[in-house]
Amino acid sequence: MDPAQTALLARDIGAGLATIGVAGAGVGIGNLFGSFVSAVGRNPAARDTMFRDVLLGFALTEAVALYALVIALVILFA
Amino acid sequence: MDPLGQFRLTTGLGPLGASVNFTNSNEAMLAAAAIIVILFVFGLRAGALVPGRTQALVEILYEFVHKMCIDTIGEEGKKFFPLVFTLFAFILLGNLIGLFPYFFAFTSHIAVTLTLALFVFVFSTGVGFYTHGFRFFLFFVPKGVPVWLLPLLVPIEIISYLARPVSLSVRLFANMTAGHVMWEVFAGFMLLLTAGLGIFGVVASIIPLGLNVALVALELLVACLQAYVFAILTCLYLHDAVHMH
Question: Which of residues 23 through 62 in chain A touch B, CB cutoff 8 A?
Answer without folding.
Answer: 55-56, 58-60, 62
